[in-house]
Write a structure and sequence with these properties.
single chain, mainly beta, Hypothetical Protein Tm1070, Chain: A, 2 helices, 40 strands, disordered N terminus
């Protein structure tokens, strides 16, 4: 058997030699100096998201906006074709369904409220079946793309997330009033994905069979129940990691009983030593900070609140000490208005905040600062709802343009929507009411575009919707919606071809 093993190794050596020779001919460089290519700016021409199944398997609604309108007679931005966007069904794996036709959107910059039909089983006894939805876009339509699953009134209930290989969620467990925890895994690609689900609770790492090597077939959805795995935990942190391919994921938590309250967990930023959680509003109850330290080293975490009055330490001089491989809950005293939380740790951690309100409450999680702009597509002031944009500037003054775009208006076109420029002082949070743009139909949905202006410091933002005096209905942390990407510098190296 040994000659059989040596043949591939020899082939690899020959290939490496040929590549090295070609590299020397193509990019001669002085001895001792590596050739480094400069970073390259490229236009976004492809984007994908996935929306989770509607509870009960019925029809749903997606707020969708993407692209900037091209000038008349132009093919698109920087020569990019206009392209199109499409919503397509991601049925549950293993079910026989009558798949509905894809839903297509072709007008850049227009907010669309798209109805996703209920999917019927293919059996003689027809019934509805839950399914996810992929949202894909090409050309100009891929730029600034945002999609959110909404309520009937058009208010975003959960953001349609990007596919990835390492996704994090954190929230309460059964001791926090949660009865059911459902994980939805959606594959928008043409190749299968293999997923491992890791769970950390306040009791430590959970070892469970059946949560490794989960296969998610192409263009399908897999749903996993995690309630029994989480046990009687007060805090549950969920890591979704792929060994093959990529998936989008969502986590739904609910209480006991018919018509039980449900809430979506918002995916949080990957573990880091510096985190910012935007959009923590006041509420009638006590908000809670949920933390996870996924490493083996104990974490020491300090917490600072960025409020309208400036910074303060809500826990005083106290730090939060956590052992490795553990999750933790900290009740939060009132922060002095709507605020952001800034966390500093000696080891990478990640976190989220649960604010009491409708359902189990509303979640906001750690996010990255906004680059270029962010879009929250699903907003409405119908049914007594109030909508505000929460802007936080932890380091340096920020000037921000806020634009509201209605269903019949095109973002960035002359005179479209309502726009204002506001200034957020360094170390402060500013709350700005959002209203439908001039000329919008009463009670209709509208999008909010958040654009930090040149010369500004880092900006973190969230959209907060409330009903009445202090009932928090939903929080949507703002995530960058890019038109361009910066490719990192490339240097001569064998790392790109070595296993």
């Amino acid at each position: 058997m040994r000659p059989v093993q040596l043949v591939p190794a020899g082939a690899v050596l020959v290939a490496l030699g040929a590549i090295a020779a070609a590299a020397q001919l193509a990019t001669p460089a002085p001895a001792g100096k590596a050739h480094v290519a400069a970073p390259q700016q490229v236009v976004v021409t492809s984007a994908a998201r996935a929306c989770p199944p509607v509870q009960g398997g019925g029809s749903g609604q997606v707020a969708f906006i993407a692209g900037s309108p091209a000038p008349p007679g132009s093919a698109g931005t920087a020569g990019t074709a206009a392209g199109q966007a499409q919503l397509a069904s991601l049925p549950l794996a293993g079910t026989q369904l009558r798949i509905p036709n894809p839903i297509t959107a072709t007008q850049p910059g227009l907010l669309s409220m798209l109805t996703t039909p209920a999917t019927q089983t293919a059996s003689k006894k027809a019934s509805t079946s839950p399914q996810g939805w992929s949202v894909t876009a090409t050309g100009t339509m891929a730029q600034t793309m945002e999609a959110e699953e909404t309520t009937g009134a058009g208010l975003a209930s959960v953001r349609c997330g990007e596919p990835g290989s390492d996704l994090w969620f954190i929230g309460p467990g059964q001791q926090g009033g949660v009865a059911q925890i459902q994980l939805d895994l959606m594959n928008v690609d043409a190749l299968p994905a293999s997923v491992d689900v890791n769970i950390i609770t306040d009791a430590g790492q959970v070892q469970a069979s059946g949560d490794t090597g989960i296969t998610v077939p192409p263009h399908q959805t897999v749903t996993e129940a995690l309630s029994s795995v989480a046990g009687n935990a007060a805090v549950v942190a969920i890591e979704v990691r792929t060994s093959i391919g990529r998936v989008a994921a969502d986590v739904l938590e609910s209480r006991h009983g018919a018509g039980a309250a449900v809430s979506w967990l918002t995916s949080t930023a990957p573990p880091s030593t510096q985190l910012v959680i935007p959009g923590v509003p006041p509420s009638a109850g006590t908000a809670g900070l949920y933390l996870v330290d996924p490493g083996t080293t104990s974490a020491r975490i300090s917490v600072s609140a960025i409020t309208p009055q400036g910074r303060h330490q809500p826990l005083g001089a106290q730090t939060i000490d956590m052992p490795g491989d553990s999750a933790y809950y900290v009740p939060l005293s009132p922060l002095g208005g709507t605020a952001a939380l800034e966390l500093s740790s000696n080891v990478p951690v990640t976190a989220g905040v649960l604010v009491p309100g409708s359902g189990l409450g509303a979640f906001t999680t750690a996010t990255a600062p906004i680059s270029e702009q962010a879009v929250v597509a699903g907003n409405t002031t119908s049914s007594g709802l109030s909508v505000t944009v929460v802007l936080s500037a932890p380091a340096g003054q920020v000037r921000v343009r806020l634009t509201e775009v209605g269903e019949t208006q095109v973002a960035a076109s002359p005179g479209a929507g309502s726009s204002q420029i506001v200034t957020v002082q360094s170390g402060h949070t500013l709350t700005v009411p959002a209203t439908p743009p001039t000329g919008a139909r009463h009670g209709s949905a509208f999008a909010i575009v958040i654009t930090p202006l040149a010369g500004s410091g880092p900006l973190y933002a969230a959209r907060v919707a409330t009903q009445g005096q202090n009932t928090v209905v939903s929080i949507v942390p703002a995530v960058s919606a890019l038109t361009t990407l910066t490719l990192p510098p490339v240097r001569d190296s064998y790392n790109a071809i070595s296993p």
